[in-house]
């Protein structure tokens, strides 16, 4: 028996915070690749502390639905899950974006725990960002004539947070698909407030590298960019700012292809997932805006 | 009971069978078949089959627990046995009760086990407050995954960050779950309660007391270590009693220092301060850093009691129940507004500044 445990932040205040976690878990459940799939949260239940005991399988793949390697993935999750032998060096990520997986015993259960790197620094995440751009524009070929801005939180608590943004910015730039690809941040330069200054193209797709929609992605960023004066009134897609058309995508973590990254993380850690990735890819084929 | 169950039992007899009063053993003279009502010895294979057919409830009971439920050591297995009181009631008595439905409560959940064909159990799961309501008056669910959304909001549409708060919404029913789906659904409504309950009854509950939890915290929560035992008691009184959370609190300040706060009455234990308590504790520590001061207010005795009544109304979650025109209730909105208009001032209550030194 093998189980997948998807761990995410969750919220005491915002009921939508856990929605992407549930959605991706359900997509993976539907593939039947795992005997059990369970969600666990820092702020909701089951807690990281008690998640492992809620599955019966002996082999457990733990995939953090977090954007970067840092405080949560390197300290909080292993500590709370009682992976006592945890050593961040076991992930072999010296550059902060190359975490793989490592295998441990947990102190409170008799199971083998495969602790995977966060979804946010996996290379497939670049494809999810591109897919998000396709979804928001309704154009599966979007690229030519478009700029792409990837928005990160910034360095406030964790320097690796910016590394994940730069990593995907560079990878998507190398695809040569968009006219221009730039990283912007909420609390450091270059700031998302000035996003239109960084692009020559009239159309700019803006994708925040966040797991869930919340006040950062639904309130701060739309207001900071000048898409709306008051988030409560919503924002247009696309919206006109300084002579540019801004296609604001909302949190990348809500894109259904994210489930593919979760599966990939588990598969790389040794999970037998059969053809589940193909099934996720079929299920999450690009949707067209307005349909 | 059906033929396949009898065949499976005869096959299992070689290894020996023992469950809920049914015992089958292979002896030198043949099979020994025993129930509380009758014992047969020296049976051939076909005689064993006949004996089994004469005790159909025992056969289907054996089959249900070993073949349908399985996982004999699992929390799921133990929980399903608890639901029908399998360790306390003999098979005939239980089957009689199951034929009309055997109901157990788990927090705000009401679980009714019944018998379907061939002794297979089916379970009806609903809110205790909906115990007597007809199925067609309730929103019907089949998929355990729906339970996450049932648990998200209370009856007033407010977000429930704590799944075991006694605010589970009403008006829904899972009328026909199998055992595995029942446990899954319960675990979505009240995560980890089944597993922790099972650990406790086996004497293996791993309790983490407050000091240990506090010491482990990092980042913005590292300050919760600073909570005094008096403050911790107030915090548990505020957040952990049955009116706020149904889990039975098993942790204390530390192993030697029990908190003088009721633990709660429910079957399922709380083995460690939860994230909500830790978050609250962080706030309480910062509140505790302030020194008390003396203030002087001019209030009538009734106004003093009114303010205390307003605190009670908020603390007891009674504000929404106070009738619009009930002017006899001090926490009534008109009464509170009148107090503010009469006694409030630029500097707040009784126009007494919070920081008088700023106004000298």
Global Rg of chain B:
29 Å
Let me know the largest β-sheet of chain A.
Answer: 5 strands, mixed
Q: What structural class do you assign from the helix and strand content of chain A?
A: alpha/beta
| Oligomeric state, counting identical vs distinct chains | heterodimer
Order of helices and strands of chain A: EHEHEHEEHEHEEHEEHH
Describe the structure.
The complex is a heterodimer of chains A (291) and B (360). Chain A is α/β, with parallel strands linked by helices. In chain A, 30% of the residues lie in helices and 19% in strands. In chain A, helix 7 runs antiparallel to helix 8. Chain A is globular and about 60 Å long. Chain B is of the alpha+beta class and 360 residues long. Chain B has four domains: 3-68; 70-201, Gyrase A, domain 2; 210-288, 2-Layer Sandwich (Alpha-Beta Plaits); 301-359, no CATH class. Helix content of chain B is 38%, strand content 15%. Chain B has helices spanning 3-13, 45-53, 56-69, 75-83, 91-100, 147-150, 179-189, 193-201, 210-216, 229-239, 275-288, 301-315, 333-343, and strands at 17-19, 22-27, 30-34, 39-43, 102-106, 109-115, 121-127, 139-140, 172-177, 248-249, 269-270, 344-345, 348-349. In chain B, the strands form four sheets. Chain B has a five-stranded mixed sheet with strand order 5-6-7-9-8. A four-stranded antiparallel sheet of chain B has the order 1-2-3-4. In chain B, strands 10-11 form a two-stranded parallel sheet. The radius of gyration of chain B is 29 Å and the shape is elongated. The chains are: A alpha/beta (291), B alpha+beta (360). The interface between A and B is medium-sized, with 25 and 27 residues.
Question: Would you kindly provide a brief summary of this structure?
Answer:
Helices cover 30% and strands 19% of the residues of chain A. Chain A contains 8 helices and 10 strands. The model of chain A has no long low-confidence stretch (mean pLDDT 93).
